[in-house]
Amino acid sequence: MANSNNQGNGSEIVKETSKAALEVGALALAANTSVEATKQLCELLMQKAIETQQLQLEQQKTKELEAKNQLLIEQKEAAEAETERIFRYNENFHHHLKTATELAKEFGTNPNRIGGLATKLGLKREPIYGKLGKTQLNNGRWVDTFYYNEDAQFVIAENL
User: Fold this and answer.
1) Which of 6, 22, 97, 109 could bond to 147 as cystine, CB 3.0-4.6 Å?
2) Geometric angle at alpha carbon 32, from 29 and 34, rounded to 5°
3) Phi then psi for 135, rounded to 5 degrees?
4) Are residues 87 and 116 in the same domain?
5) Are 83 and 105 found together in one domain?
6) Number of domains in the chain
7) Residue 74 phi/psi, 5° resolution?
8) pLDDT band, residue 113 (cuts 50/70/90)
9) In sequence order, what are the beta bridge partners of 55?
10) Looking at the DSSP assignment, which residues form a beta bridge with residue 146?
11) CB 160 within 8 Å of CB 109
12) Based on C-alpha coordinates, what's the Rg of the chain?
């Protein structure tokens, strides 16, 4: 549709240019009715039509390039935003990890309640909420310990 509008605008420009050239040419023909004057008028009209068409093509190419450039800018901004989001997520995921005992002290409850709530909510099954590690107890036994990241801490705080 935009292309047909551009063609419509272009034909109007050609008509106006042709009309002005015809007026000038008609005056020249009235003054001098030679074949040479008619030939020059036709050449002038053809030249103006070609120039107008070239101008329209250049304007259309410019608009297309601007649209492509805008699209590339939007894609670049989206990629930068996604990169920033991933960076923040990774930073959040790997830092500020806390055990159920630390969270229990922070929220004023006991570690069993934190662990039970995390299991009930499915936080321990989803790797986006923390990581599973091994901890050695005082008696020498090794036990699995889940380390909760900030996202998991937020979910637990909302559900306590």
Assistant:
1) 97
2) 85
3) -130, 140
4) no
5) no
6) 2
7) -65, -40
8) very high
9) none
10) 132
11) yes
12) 38
Amino acid at 135: T
Cα dihedral 97, 99, 101, 107, rounded to 10, equals 50
The residue behind tokens 């003054």 is: 31
Domain of residue 105: give its range: 100-159
Mean pLDDT score across all residues of the chain: 80
Model confidence pLDDT, tens digit, residues 57-71? 999 999 999 998 998
Q: Is the pLDDT of residue 1 over 50?
A: no
d(C-alpha 71, C-alpha 80), whole Å: 14
Q: Are residues 85 and 7 in the same domain?
A: yes
In b/e form, how buried is each residue of 26-36, taking b as 16+ CB within 10 angstroms? eebeeeeeeee
User: 53 and 21 in one domain?
Assistant: yes
Q: Which residue has the tokens 């005056």?
A: 27
Residue with tokens 């008509």: 15
